[in-house]
Specification:
single chain; 415 residues; alpha/beta; TIM Barrel; eight-stranded parallel β-barrel; binds flavin-adenine dinucleotide
């Protein structure tokens, strides 16, 4: 039986046959601040406004980064400053259990959660083991919980940077000791995917630095072949700022077709552009990043379109705060008669960012999930500083958040 496609407000698409797609899109409005911030109390709105006003100043963020580094080194307590501000805006809590209220709250607005254990502790054997065990717990926590859309892990948190870089860039130089450590990493990686498979939970493998990614891709491809026979369980992340990702996506499709599995793909633009360019220049290899923002955008659009066109072999997760990308995918689904609630396609944003996109999409019946990081204040600080920096450096992001918050605060006052 063909899937029923739903239009705005859950009305079957067939009822809109005499309305043009363009007219329908007037109804998906990311500027609707009432819906965007429906999950936030007045106090939370004011907090968010103050926070984005501060992190909009690059100088302040740089200063905070230096001070935080010093404070961490001398074990100076930071909770009092971080918890009511950055942590409150961007983090779900310290433990899985702490995140239950936010999971339930998001679900009231039809937004699902993806819990992300974001501790970036030192890559010591104890730290690695602790992260591995917590990730297993997060996969168990997602079992049979319809409010949790995916589990996720960052491969570099279950091994060391040295091993990932060597296995990716100089595998011929690996010593017996390196191979021993790489095999231990591989076992942890596969154990997480096995647990996800046993629990029927989809698991996203985050993408990282270019110099680590080759080894991560190899393991992810192998895991997809093993665990994605009936449905996509393991998802590879493709950073579309890399100009070699379209060929990789085509190879994934060929492999999935040849080996009879459903490929899971997560698309992002990529978070490490400046560092990648700097490293490529320093080490003397070609820049792996698209030459311009427009080229990245086109690459991103091409990958999303290609995947939607081959949805018989893919499930996809699109993580972006770019309004145009979200509009484009929403429109593409409707144009192709793919149901907005089709579980093969998810839109995603980070907790505390771009609520105007998440809540308006969810309201119109699309599948939406928020990445909800959790960890202790100390462990999650690198993640928080990246968010602060991202909001400073991603052109327009902070300005947009502030503009939206201001409109909503004024609207509520008037109401
Ligand atoms: C749910 C979710 C999960 C994520 N997971 C990951 C992950 O696993 N790995 C990861 O690396 N990132 C991840 N990110 C971050 C993501 O890669 C982006 O850094 C971030 O979302 C900003 O991109 P955008 O599409 O939201 O916004 P936009 O503002 O449209 O795009 C900004 C991005 O465009 C690219 N860009 C900017 N200027 C240029 C230029 N001059 N030339 C070429 N490209 C340029 C860069 O990638 C930059 O980050 C995730 C984001 C979300 C929302």
């Amino acid at each position: 039986m063909p899937a029923i496609a739903y239009g705005p407000s859950g009305i079957p698409f067939s009822d809109y046959l005499n309305i043009s797609i363009d007219k329908l899109y007037i109804m998906l409005d990311f500027n609707n601040t009432e819906i965007a911030f429906s999950a936030k109390s007045d106090g939370e709105l004011q907090n968010a406004y103050r926070l984005f006003s501060v992190i909009g100043h690059p100088g302040l963020v740089k200063c905070a980064k230096v001070l935080t580094g010093v404070a961490l080194k001398i074990h100076f307590p930071l909770s009092w400053a971080v918890k009511p501000t950055l942590y409150k805006q961007f983090v779900g809590g310290e433990t899985l259990q702490d995140c239950v209220p936010i999971i339930n709250h998001l679900q009231k607005f039809n937004v699902k959660t993806t819990l992300d254990y974001s501790a970036e502790s030192e890559q010591t054997p104890d730290g690695i083991q602790a992260t591995f065990e917590e990730t297993i717990r997060s996969i168990d926590f997602a079992k049979d919980n319809p409010n949790l859309a995916y589990a996720v892990f960052k491969p570099s948190t279950i091994t060391t940077d040295e091993i990932l870089a060597k296995a990716s860039e100089r595998p011929n130089e690996m010593t017996a000791d390196d191979r021993f450590h790489f095999n231990a990493f591989r076992e942890r990686f596969m154990a997480l995917c096995t647990r996800a498979y046993d629990n029927n939970v989809r698991v996203l493998v985050d993408a990282e630095d270019y110099c680590f990614q080759e080894a991560i891709d190899r393991l992810t491809d192998e895991a997809m072949r093993l665990f994605n026979k009936k449905r996509a369980i393991v998802f590879a992340t493709l950073q579309m700022y890399r100009h070699d990702r379209m060929p990789y996506l085509r190879r994934i499709l060929d492999d999935a077709t040849a080996n009879g599995y459903i490929a899971g793909v997560k698309f992002v633009r990529g978070a490490y552009m400046e560092a990648e360019r700097e490293r490529a220049t320093r080490m003397g290899y070609p820049d792996p990043i698209c030459p311009t923002k427009q080229a990245t955008d086109e690459n991103f659009d091409a990958a999303v379109r290609f995947t939607v066109e081959h949805l018989d072999r893919f499930e996809m997760f699109m993580g972006t705060h770019n309004e145009e990308s979200n509009y484009k995918l929403a429109r593409l689904l409707d144009e192709r008669g793919i149901a907005r609630g089709d579980s093969r396609v998810f839109f995603a944003q980070l907790l505390g960012m771009s609520d105007n996109i998440s809540f308006n999409l969810a309201r119109e019946g699309y599948n939406v999930t928020k990445y909800v990081p959790y960890a202790s204040v100390r462990d999650v600080l690198p993640y928080l500083l990246r968010r602060a920096e991202e909001n400073t450096s991603v052109a327009g992001q902070t300005g947009r958040e502030l503009r939206m918050l201001k409109i909503e605060i004024a609207r509520r006052r008037k109401a």
